[in-house]
Write a structure and sequence with these properties.
Layout: H1 3-13, H2 21-27, E1 39-42, H3 52-67, E2 71-74, H4 88-98, E3 106-107, E4 114-115, H5 127-139, E5 143-146, H6 150-162, H7 181-189, E6 195-198, E7 207-212, E8 216-221, E9 228-230, H8 238-248, E10 253-257, H9 264-273, E11 280-284, E12 288-291, E13 294-297, H10 308-314, H11 318-329, H12 333-339, H13 364-376, H14 380-394, H15 396-404, H16 406-414, H17 432-435, H18 459-472, H19 479-492, E14 495-496, H20 499-504, E15 511-512, H21 513-525, H22 533-555
Parallel strand pairs: 1-2, 10-11, 14-15
Antiparallel strand pairs: 3-4, 5-6, 6-9, 7-8, 12-13
Helix pairs in contact: 1-5, 1-7, 8-9, 11-13, 14-15, 14-16, 18-19, 18-21, 18-22, 21-22
């Protein structure tokens, strides 16, 4: 295109636009960061749905930015206003913060305020910036208006299909690529709507090589399509907006899902057309789920665990999810955590080149194992606070019980916690009401005699042992004295105090002290397996012990 024509066309399409590219290059200069510092971003749409795969990608970007003493920022891609929901930005910020993912720059949770010198961080607030660079492409003869209607484009697609041609707007199919200036002026004067398209310099059959930081060297076909840059309402397309934003915000690394891999040639063309150095790209394979003998992408539609809300409702501690996602990012994290049990996860260095090329396998069983370890390492006070927060959102009656006597609740969570081998029974807070049910009369389920089935205590002894036990219980007894009393009680009824002796000669005894303590445990808690019974009885107290044992006796057959 003749450059004089192009200059006139740019003035015609963007009347009154006074800013020039140098305006924004000066406003957003290269960042003053140390050598090797990465500038990364998370750029979601404010749709209200946060996918666990999005958290995964955000965590990779966050770690890369922060471990290099760089910058990690949030950019909201809200040019499609139909998909936006009220409070969507706040929800994104809150969800990510709960998983320990915090931004150096970007929108703040409250109102329209932002933090950082490279904003606005909402694309809907950057339209004049996009228009400036769109006009520059027109001025260079690299963009033009396309007046095709949806109906015309539909007919074109039908013809391409009939002729077995590749679909798209390119080459001889690019109807308005070389439209005469006078014709453009006439159509604009008529008020005809148009989209602004990029004049692709690509050639069919030509290929480029992308050096991807995760997948390595990838050969891709060069883009030949005259893609839209601005829609008919003047709003930019994703392809154009993200290129302008990544340049002006001085992004060094773009970490995104590999569904965008096929778009990389378009983006590289746009960077080159504008004379900019592109960032480095790292395309993440989708988080996968095993289904039978095959794997598939974790699905928003099929899999509840795809949504971040699932982890809130189930009550997974955010630390557990973060720990598990770091395992998925780099499998070496598990060994690092084993060697550094007390360190913050921020001490681990994420390596992009060690990420899975085929996609990390999301396994809820493994997540539960990680979460049990995480919860097992927490203090009783921390457990109480997190359980209460969860219960206030999802189990109000249980929250009321916890708040009625916080010290009692902390005492429950203290049992077998803090030692070298803490219990690891709980994977998520939604399991807690059932797990601690027997500590609260309001939700305790009285056990029935069916729980005694298979217990190695003779039927004629059960009532006698249970009737004899409460009067011997003293809450002032140490654990050693308490258990010695159970040993003595066992021997009185023919049950040995010595487990080894029983295993050596079981016919010499009715049973052993473990059978007797299990009988007491069932009567008091309704469980065969619990944490430390001495601590449980100490918390429940002698009155409730006696009450529960006598009620249980009443349910035993004569």
């Amino acid at each position: 295109m003749d450059l004089t024509h192009a200059q006139r066309l740019s003035d015609l399409l963007f009347p009154g636009l006074t800013s020039i590219p140098e305006t924004y290059e000066s406003l957003y200069p290269p960042r003053n960061l140390e050598k090797g510092a990465a500038v990364t971003r998370f750029a979601p749409s404010p749709t209200g749905f946060v996918h666990i795969g999005g958290v995964f990608a955000a965590l990779v970007s966050e770690r890369l930015g922060k471990q290099t003493n760089g910058v990690f920022y949030l950019r909201i891609e809200d040019t499609d206003r139909k998909r936006e929901i009220p409070g969507g930005v706040k929800q994104i910020i809150r969800n990510l913060r709960e998983f320990g993912i915090c931004f150096n720059e970007g929108p703040l949770e409250e109102g329209e305020q932002e933090s950082g010198a490279y904003g606005p961080y909402r694309q809907s607030h950057r339209v004049r910036i996009y228009h400036c660079f769109a006009r520059e492409l027109v001025r260079m003869g690299l963009a033009y208006p396309c007046f095709c209607t949806e109906e015309e484009l539909g007919r074109m697609r039908n013809r391409q299909e009939a002729e077995k041609a590749d679909p798209g707007y390119y080459g001889s199919w690019a109807l308005h690529r070389d439209m005469d200036f006078q014709e453009v002026a006439r159509l604009l004067a008529e008020g005809r709507p148009y989209a602004l398209r990029f004049r692709s310099p690509g050639s069919p059959g030509r290929r480029l090589v992308l050096q991807d930081l995760i997948k390595g060297s990838i050969e891709l076909p060069e883009n030949v399509h005259d893609i839209p840059l601005l829609k008919s309402d003047g709003i930019p397309t994703y392809h154009f907006a993200h290129v302008v934003d990544d340049h002006l915000m001085r992004t060094t690394h773009v970490i995104r899902g590999d569904e965008w891999l096929s778009s990389a040639p378009v983006h590289l063309q746009l960077f080159e057309a504008l004379g900019w150095t592109p960032p480095l790209y790292a395309h993440i394979s989708p988080v996968m789920k095993e289904e039978g003998s095959s794997r598939r992408k974790l699905s928003k539609r099929k899999d509840p665990e795809a949504a971040v809300s699932y982890y809130h409702e189930k009550g997974y501690p955010p630390e557990s999810v973060r720990e598990y996602l770091l395992n998925l990012i780099n499998s070496s994290y598990e060994d690092w955590r084993r060697a550094n049990p007390d360190k913050s996860s921020s001490g681990f260095t994420v390596e992009l080149e060690r990420m899975s090329v085929s996609g990390a396998l999301f396994d809820l069983v493994k997540l539960n194992d990680v979460s049990r370890n995480t919860i097992g390492a927490m203090t009783a006070d921390a457990v109480y606070e997190q359980v209460l927060t969860w219960a206030e959102a999802y189990a109000l009656e249980f929250a009321a019980l916890l708040k009625k006597d916080p010290a009692y609740a902390v005492g429950i969570f203290s049992i077998e916690r803090g030692g070298p081998k803490p219990r690891k029974d709980i994977a998520m807070w939604s399991e807690v009401p059932e797990y601690v049910r027997y500590f609260y009369d309001e939700i305790h389920q009285e056990p029935g005699p069916d729980l005694l089935e298979g217990l190695n205590v003779a039927e004629e002894d059960r009532k006698k042992i249970l009737a004899a036990y409460p009067v011997r219980y003293d809450p002032e007894d140490s654990q050693e004295v308490w258990f010695e009393k159970i040993r003595i009680l066992s021997e009185e009824f023919g049950y040995t105090r010595d487990m080894k002796a029983y295993r050596k000669n079981p016919d010499a005894f009715k049973g052993h002290v473990g059978d007797v303590s299990t009988l007491i445990r069932i009567a008091v808690t309704g469980r065969r397996m619990t944490p430390d019974l001495w601590r449980i009885l100490h918390l429940l107290g002698p009155a409730r012990l006696q009450q529960r044992v006598f009620r249980f006796l009443g349910r035993l057959p004569e």
